[in-house]
User: Fold Amino acid ABC transporter ATP-binding protein from Gilliamella apicola.
Amino acid sequence: MISVSHLSKRFADNEVLKDINLNIKQGEVVAIIGPSGSGKSTLLRCLNLLEKPNTGTIKIGSVALNSEHYHNKDEINLRKQSAMVFQHYNLFKNKTALENITYPLIVGQKIGKDKAKQQGLSLLERVGMLPYANQFPITLSGGQQQRIAIARALAVRPKVLLFDEPTSALDPERVHEVLQVMLQLAKEHITMIIVTHEMEFAKYVADRIIFMANGVIVEEGPAKSIIDNPQHELTQRFLRQITDEIDFEI
Assistant:
């Protein structure tokens, strides 16, 4: 359902993505892991053109785009295929939880206010946030804001949900409530690509794990296999570093 071919991205002289090739099936949950600076988030942002690739083609559903020559209409059509959940929520601070969800429906999809409200309330209930419909983001915890952000992403009925380290800005006690919502979405066979440092979550929820380093896909395979028995030396070293306890004396 998603196909990426020969994708590359440079920032000045720094080549962040180098000839990325990737295929994802409908309903598949793919976790992307790797050290900071490996190109994980840039790859995700290229899929919905928040970052413009230098070369390569992206196909989501029936919409394909050649990054070297495309029209504004092609860009709009590709963006409609996905929805992004950001690390820092990106909610409108001057809008309530419900308004954050209905805004893209009313403005972007020209849905009537009553119908948009009905859909918004249903989505809030789906992520366990219905009692907070009329509260503003500033009154909510990080975990609650992220659940609203997930509901907003679901509102536009995308072909794929893109998660860019959705729990990294949360207090540890709030991480679980967001991961539970994502687990439920996985059970509903919603296609998801998740950049994450939550290895246990990736192991048990993702169908497949992609390990990236230095702008390339180093290793990929079934989630449990990659976490428990990585084959590449870089993957082994990365997983060892994040699972080893820090040993120090005071």
